[in-house]
Amino acid sequence: MTWQSLTGLYQDFDNLKQDYPTRFGAKRADGFFALNLQDRKTLPLSVKPDQDPEPMKAASRYVITVKQGADLYYFRKSTKTFVKSANANASIWEELNAPIELAEKILQTKTIWNKQKKCDPSTLRIYDLTMGAFVWDPATTDQHALQANSLYRNVRRRIARHLANSPRLDDKAAIKHNLPTIDLDLEQILAALDVLIDSLQQKPSVDHLLNYYDKSVTQDLLHTIELTDTEMLDASKIISLIKETRVKRRRIKDLSIFLTALANSFDVAKFLTALETNPSYGSSYSFKDKDTADIVMGIIRQQEGEQV
C-alpha cells in the first residue's frame, strides 16, 4: 500500500497501532520505517514530524482542551501531551469527527493522565476557535451514540483499508512445528479390536469354567480328602491331580480377571455406535443446495459422457 503524503501514512500507522495493540505493543517504535519510492530513502516512523494542521489557519478550527486549575491547556497529538499555547503547539483539526474520536480515546487512556496528573479528565472538551465556543462536552453528550459512532468509524475505516489492499499472503508469522511421530496402523488396531470383542463374547464361557473349577472340581477333591481314609489314597497321585486342576483353574482365573475389568470399563456397543455414526468414515456426501447440486452433477455427467 502506498501513500501520497506522510500525513496520511502516519495517520494510518497510528490507526493500525490502535486497532492491533497486542501486535504492535511488544515492538520497538524505531523498528518501523517509511520508504520514499522516488529517492529510495527511509524515514523512521518513531521520529515523525508533527503533521498536525498548522494552527489558526482559516480552515482549521477544532482543538481538544482540558483544564489545569483555572488555566486551559490544549492537546498535542504528536507528543500525547497537553500544552499551554494553542497558537504554537496545539493540534488543530478541520473536521469535528477526528478530534471527537481522539478525545474519546484520550478519556480511556490512563497513561496520558498519569503523565499529567494536574489535568482534570472531567474537563476534557473540544473548542471551536472560529466560533469561540465549546462544541463537544462528554458530560452533556449522549455517550452511547458517540460510542456507536466511534465503533462505526473504526469498522468503516478497517473495511476501507481492506478494500484498498489487494489480497496477499504473508509468511512472516509462520513458525516451524515440531510434529510428533506415530507408529500406528489402523488395520493392526482393527485386528486388536477383533481380539478384544471376541474375548468379551467368550467371557460367559470363561466365567462358567471358573465356577466349574471352584464349585465342582475343587469341592470334589477336598471332600475326597476329608471323607476317605488316607491309607487308601496314593498321596503323590492326589497331589499331582490337585496341582493339575489348580494350574488349569489359574489360567481361567487370569482370563476372568482381565475380561471382567475390560467389560466394566469398555462399552463395546457405545464404541461401535460412535464409529458407525461418524460421517468421516465414508466417501459420500449429500448436497445441501439444490441449485449447486444440479450444476455440479451436470458437470460430472457431461464429463462422464465425454469419456464414454
What's the topology here?
Layout: H1 6-19, H2 21-25, E1 33-35, E2 42-44, E3 62-68, E4 71-76, E5 81-83, H3 97-108, H4 110-115, E6 120-128, E7 133-136, H5 143-164, H6 186-201, H7 203-227, H8 235-265, H9 268-276, H10 290-307
Antiparallel strand pairs: 1-2, 3-4, 3-6, 4-5, 6-7
Helix pairs in contact: 7-8
Can you describe this structure?
The chain has 308 residues and is α+β, with helices and mostly antiparallel strands. It folds into three domains: 1-49, no CATH class; 52-164, no CATH class; 196-276. The chain has ten helices and seven strands. It has helices at residues 6-19, 21-25, 97-108, 110-115, 143-164, 186-201, 203-227, 235-265, 268-276, 290-307, and strands at 33-35, 42-44, 62-68, 71-76, 81-83, 120-128, 133-136. The strands form two sheets. The protein has a five-stranded antiparallel β-sheet. Strands 1-2 form a two-stranded antiparallel sheet. Strand 1 (33-35) and strand 2 (42-44) form a beta hairpin. Residues 49-58 have low confidence and may be disordered.
